[in-house]
Amino acid sequence: MAGIRLHVISPLVLVAVGKCARDPSVFVRKCAANALPKLHELRQEEITSAIEEIVGILLNDRSPGVVGAAAAAFASICPNNFTLIGRNYRNLCQILPDVEEWGQILLIEILLRYVVASHGLVKESIMSSLLCIESSHSEKDVFDVNVALEDNGIPSRTYDSELVNLVSRSYIEGLGEYLTRSSDTNARSSDLNGARFTSGKTNDDVKLLLQCTSPLLWSHNSAVVLAAAGVHWIMSPKEDVKRIVKPLLFILRSSGASKYVVLCNIQVFAKALPHLFVPHYEDFFVSSSDSYQSKALKLEILSSIVTESSISSVFKEFQDYIRDPDRRFAADTVAAIGLCARKLPKMANTCVEGLLALIRQELLTSDIESGNGEADVLIQSIISIKSIIKQDPSCHEKVIIQLFRSLDSIKVPEARVMIIWMVGEYSSVGVKIPRMLTTVLKYLAWCFKSEAVETKLQILNTTIKVLLCAKGGDMWTITRLFSYLLELAECDLNYDVRDRARFFKKLFSHNLCSQVPEETNALQENKDLPLVLVECIFRKQENLAASEPINDRFYLPGSLSQIVLHAAPGYEPLPKPCSSLCDDLGQFSNSIDRTTALGEEWTGSSSNGTDDPDTSGSLDEESGSNYDSQQSIPGLSDNSGTGDSASEGDRNCDPLIQISDAGIACSNENGASHSGFPDLEGMMSKRALESWLDEQPGSSSPSASEQIQVRQSSARISIGNIGRQVKAKSYTLLDPANGNGLKVYYSFSSEASTISPQLVCLETFFENCSSETMSEVTLVDEESHKALDLADLTLATTAR
Amino acid sequence: MLFLKSMPVIASPTHYIFQIVRAGITFLACTQVEMPPLMGIEFLCRVADILSDYLGELNEDLIKDNFVIVYELLDEMIDNGFPLTTEPNILREMIAPPNIVSKMLSVVTGNSSNVSDILPGATASCVPWRPTDVKYANNEVYVDLVEEMDAIINRDGVLVKCEIYGEVQVNCLLSGLPDLTLSFANPSILHDVRFHPCVRFRPWESHQILSFVPPDGQFKLMSYRVKKLKSTPIYVKPQLTSDAGTCRISVMVGIRNDPGKTIDSIILQFQLPPCILSADLTSNHGTVNVLSNKICTWSIGRIPKDKAPSLSGTMVLETGLETLRVFPTFQVEFRIMGVALSGLQIDKLDLQNVPNRLYKGFRAVTRAGEYEVRS
């Protein structure tokens, strides 16, 4: 009956479900539990509390089947109501192994969230490294941290502490917060004090959770295995994490699709704690039936877990992979070889030799034009060699020379560009290379005309680099060559090349005019302004550190967001450690602190990929909202001053729709279903949203409607606590003196927006410093015509 | 589009789609909000398994013919986006599998539904996977060890990886509520295990004994993995030499370690590299087929006693290509009845709460899984 989604009959259905929830038959109770989410989707505020009550009853049930369905209901109705779980925690843990498999998946996640929220993280677990690193960050610098870690009696752990730190932090905070929080690490590390950590050995609840999830690692449902592995990954002491390895590797054997998902998760685990997977490297050997994505992931995992003992067999495998008919995969393999060599410098020579042999072989067959794949392999192998050489150029002098020699036979422009770049970069390395330089440059000048555009540009750059560090007799030749090249380039068909040539000509005009390079003259010119500029442009590049691009987006293991690498709607990071513990204490219950996390639209940054736009975007947002809030002060003080009857307006908040006055906002409340829950827009059915939109008078601007379709509008209102230990940097909006006793301040919240990664969460704190009751507070955002009506804010008096 | 086809999880601006492909049919599930992706994929696999169980096999026509049953099954299996009943035995009770009698009946009576009106007994019982009142005239229980051998043999003929993925499949036709205990003679060789939900974890943890109340009918009791095996039953020796635009191929197949039973349905399959224009392959035993997508299949069957099967031939390379640089990988299939190559042995099967007349049967079979030979 719950399937009939009519608002009218929902109270009747609720009564029926409530009766069924107490029915003696297991099956009836199970069906009652299944009906609850359907009722909840109708979004009728009156019945929400009743629904939650029934969920509580059903969670308390003794039959595993009912508990499974109830867990599903809990996850979709009130995932943050930890008191319900707290009451039945022990019972739930004990019943967990008997619950049906689909219920297990959700129940495991619920229990994990509850434990983190109520007891904090486990001191011995991987998550706790966050603490020790941050505390030592504030005292020493990064180098000391590594030393300190090793001194602490864990020399065998060769994990990347920075990475672990990053992973664990993103589990808790979500990505958006991690990026917006700029430099106040010190403030935060003091927040994360020892009180937030609990010991897995002494805390019974944690022990119980680990105990009852460990048999689930043997489940024949791979989703259950992965969920249980996630719990152990986060909660169990570091020594015991290894028990998840075998089950994880076993579920690789299931279907191809789940193999990909599992590999995605293993990749994160292996990057954070490589030593876990080191003995099992054979399991990541590629089989020809894998899909390309699985193959690439396996390569990546292999290159991150490879050690000195396993490197030889891994290289044997790689040699086989290079001969694979799938050339894209072969190119990836070459890249992986480069990664391995960088990881294990001892192997670098072997790697380079292998790669050189590969290049020679590629050149011998010289059918590069025939297939695109071959060119990719060649380019990739040169990239790998380049990255290996970069680590220690002087050791690889011979390799560089060999590459110079092969320049004539390499036809792919990208590959040529890279070798020519190396000519410029390593022109002063060793003894032989400087002697070769003039020959190489002559050759380059000779074939300049027939090169591709990018190669031409690179030749010009390289010549300048060589010129700058040339000495003695070569100088004259090189200068001649350079002016010849410039003349050629100035008549080039491509305007890019012409421009570059003119630019250089201007820079070097003085130098070129003199034509006769005398020692003293050159020295003087070195102090010339253009030359200094050129030096800056071309010589400083060496100092750039070769930073490995780390994909620094981590989400909870086993979540959808981890696979698609952005926060899917409804994704929530782990709750703040011990957050519900504070709630339970209830000592601050009379102090009211409403936390409004308001997802705001980003100003015009369409790219959500890189970090730079993120930070700059949030900065823009900061200044923007600062301005907006200033504008809203009159409205605030007016409303609080009059303090008349509380209007029944919903917390309507749609930042994208033009609303000129509060009356319209109130009239919209029928269309908008109640918005008391943080995930409203994500869960709201499309029809409800559209019908709501139709009522909007002012939403005619095309950009606004476009935005709505992607559902970037959001409102998150959650009740926090004044006893929160996290104090992000807060900005005062309204003084108690100006605002009739109302104090308003805001900060960028620590949560990622659940709606879209492009949104920033803003927490606004309202505090009543006067002795009177404030009834109506309005927050108006002028700039983008947003209206945020917080009329429902029943601010009780606070004793401040 | 081609790229999307092989992605198990696809992210679109508004939706996320999970997909699996079984026998040329794509199963899709879609979500708007965060959920464990493996849950979706695992559920799709379960749907595919049950459909092929009901329909005998899986293809487009069969699904079209039986779309009523497919809909009924999906209706029972998922409710409001959450999996409801996925246990095949219970589904079987709720929805009768299609057979000739039911088809006749539906034609005659015009009643097209074959959903049973009564609730299956199992939903109410304390053991959710087993109906309460099962009765058989002949009580039988069969335990099968089905093993698949995964192996990788590299270019130099060295065995890089060799492991067994095995399943214990039980066909249980027992009355009442039996309690079974299965123990192995050598459980220590098991590297890793996974169990059907009916298996109790305690006895396994302490004594490595499988204690369970079985579901009715055929089910997969456990799956296991045995790693680091030393040898394979057959050898495959491919040899490719290329010179001046042509490539000579010769493949030898033979028995390396005689397992004591006959090895049959040996099939060798490989994908010719894209740079090969044409191939002319002959064999002294079995048949060779080259499909249009350059997949070459050599079905050998059994290896004869008097000669070693071999495949030979020449292939023409693309113009301008002197030698072959990419090499195919050979996938090998075989089957050995009566032997579990991992060496796992069932010690004994004890039963409680069962009538006296009882037949117990054990079987074993080993197949090739991902068995591949690189060249």
Automatic annotation (TrEMBL), chain A:
Region annotated Disordered, chain positions: 599-654
Domain AP-3 complex subunit beta C-terminal residue range list: 685-794
GO BP terms: intracellular protein transport; vesicle-mediated transport
Source organism, top-level taxon: Eukaryota
Compositionally biased tracts (Polar residues): 624-645
PANTHER family: ADAPTOR COMPLEX SUBUNIT BETA FAMILY MEMBER
Stated name of the protein: AP-3 complex subunit beta C-terminal domain-containing protein
Species, as recorded: Citrus sinensis (Sweet orange)
TrEMBL record, chain B:
Lineage of source species: Eukaryota, Viridiplantae, Streptophyta, Embryophyta, Tracheophyta
Entries under Gene3D superfamilies matching the protein: 3.30.450.60, Mu homology domain, subdomain B
Alphabetical keyword list: Membrane, Protein transport, Transport
Family indicated by similarity: Belongs to the adaptor complexes medium subunit family.
Major localization listed first in the record, in broad terms: membrane
Species annotation: Citrus sinensis
Gene Ontology biological-process entries: intracellular protein transport; vesicle-mediated transport
Domain MHD per the UniProt entry, residue ranges: 138-374
Signal peptide positions on this chain: none
Gene Ontology CC annotations of this record: clathrin adaptor complex; endomembrane system
InterPro entries: Adaptor_comp_med_subunit, AP2_Mu_C_sf, Clathrin_mu, Clathrin_mu_CS, Longin-like_dom_sf, MHD
Record-given protein name: MHD domain-containing protein
One Pfam family here: Adap_comp_sub
